[in-house]
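To illustrate the input format used throughout this study, we show a single complete record. The first block contains the structure-token representation of the backbone; no residue identities are included at this stage. The design step must infer an amino acid for every position from geometry alone.
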């Protein structure tokens, strides 16, 4: 039984009610049915884990995606397009001339790097050489390191610098491969919002005999002799041998690990200095604003069927570090001015203390502040490992899909 995929999408009126704003949305915001606002927005990497999962399960037959039009990084109070190819590196105003050349050599090294071919490694041991040492090898400065680690490799902190370099190399490769698929950015977003994802899985589940119970209150997780046996709702028990759920269903089996602030902003204009595009992601690296965690901005719009014509939805998020979270995200909010309306939420983050070995209850982690699904997919793979005792093997799953569906799987 699965109580996990809790993506919440609201109309504009529902959004006002949820955040206890008085009155109704002004007429200038258009019709309520034109809005599908994600409370926890995330983009999909075009060549990333979630897209591969959707392709393997064939949920993509129920979804339509639109590419996000730009990816930007914050430096010195301004935003710049993230350079991820050799050509973009040479044209970028983020770096000086000599830095551009060094960064271009770095990108060529990353693109050619192959763990199975020592000739491509240039003396680097992927399991021992740190990423800090790689940056030093190419004489890259701190600001280049910032946007490489946080906007290309998508790390949330700088802890990766002193870890083996292979994970960072693979992350940068993923960004470049995802970008190469559509050209504008490495990110995709489903038309009508993330609520389409669980709907797609619900349809697929029904085809294979699964049962969905909608709008059913969960009264109790029924445990006998330390092991889950079912879920009680309105006096009835739906029996199960294993249960997947998010932390809200079993708070006594979780621990608080932090907080996330998210601010949903309604705009009547695209974000400045982006070339008036209809969607983008902006990452503010921690070092640029003297923090320990990055700040994320993602913008979607009427072009994705989530807002009224001419309207934009920008969501700012970060991990809370102080007692004044709204002050922490001010650099991001300044980029969005003027803001027509904003909705502020601060959510606790939880991680499971019960790994499910005995109870067969498998609890996910809370959604983090990132604006992409890669960390969520890592959590899904962790749950899979706990449930089955083996790692999720993409290649094996893709082979099985091909065996079952043949050419129709493409």
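Output of the design step:
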């Amino acid at each position: 039984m699965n109580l996990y995929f809790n993506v919440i999408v609201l109309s504009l009126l529902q959004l006002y009610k949820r955040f206890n704003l008085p009155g109704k949305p002004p007429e200038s915001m258009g019709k309520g049915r034109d809005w599908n606002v994600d409370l926890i927005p995330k983009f999909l990497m075009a060549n990333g884990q979630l897209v591969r999962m959707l392709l393997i399960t064939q949920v993509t037959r129920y979804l339509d995606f639109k590419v996000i039009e730009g990816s930007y990084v914050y430096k010195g109070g301004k935003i710049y397009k993230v350079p991820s190819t050799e050509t973009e590196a040479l044209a970028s105003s983020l770096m000086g001339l000599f830095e551009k050349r060094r960064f271009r050599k770095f990108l060529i090294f990353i693109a050619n790097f192959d763990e199975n071919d020592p000739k491509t490694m240039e003396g680097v041991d992927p399991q021992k050489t740190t990423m800090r040492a790689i940056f030093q090898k190419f004489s890259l400065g701190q600001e280049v390191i910032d946007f490489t680690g946080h906007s290309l490799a998508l790390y949330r902190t700088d802890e990766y610098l002193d870890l083996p370099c292979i994970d960072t190399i693979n992350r940068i490769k993923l960004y470049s491969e995802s970008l190469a698929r559509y050209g504008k950015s490495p990110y995709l977003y489903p038309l009508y919002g993330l609520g389409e994802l669980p709907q797609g899985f619900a349809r697929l589940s029904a085809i294979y005999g699964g049962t969905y119970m909608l709008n059913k209150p969960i009264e109790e997780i029924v445990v006998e002799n330390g092991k889950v046996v079912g879920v009680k709702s309105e006096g009835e028990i739906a029996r199960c041998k294993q249960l997947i759920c998010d932390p809200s269903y079993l708070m006594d089996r979780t621990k608080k690990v932090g907080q996330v602030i998210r601010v949903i902003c309604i705009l009547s204009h695209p974000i400045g200095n982006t070339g008036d595009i209809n969607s983008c992601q902006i990452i503010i690296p921690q070092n640029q604003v003297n923090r320990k965690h990055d700040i994320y901005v993602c913008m979607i719009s009427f072009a994705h069927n989530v807002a009224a014509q001419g309207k934009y939805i920008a969501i700012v998020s970060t991990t809370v570090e102080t007692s004044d979270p709204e002050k922490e995200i001010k650099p991001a909010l300044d980029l969005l001015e003027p803001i027509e309306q904003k909705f502020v939420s601060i959510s606790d983050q939880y991680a499971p203390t019960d790994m499910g070995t005995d109870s067969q209850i498998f609890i996910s982690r809370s959604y983090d502040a990132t604006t992409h699904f890669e960390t969520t997919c890592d959590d899904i793979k962790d749950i899979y490992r706990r449930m089955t005792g083996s790692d999720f093997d993409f290649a094996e799953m893709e082979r099985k899909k091909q065996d079952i569906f043949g050419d129709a799987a493409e």
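Structural context for interpreting the output: Residues 2-63+190-250+352-388 form a domain with the FAD/NAD(P)-binding domain fold (CATH 3.50.50.60). The chain has twelve helices and 18 strands.
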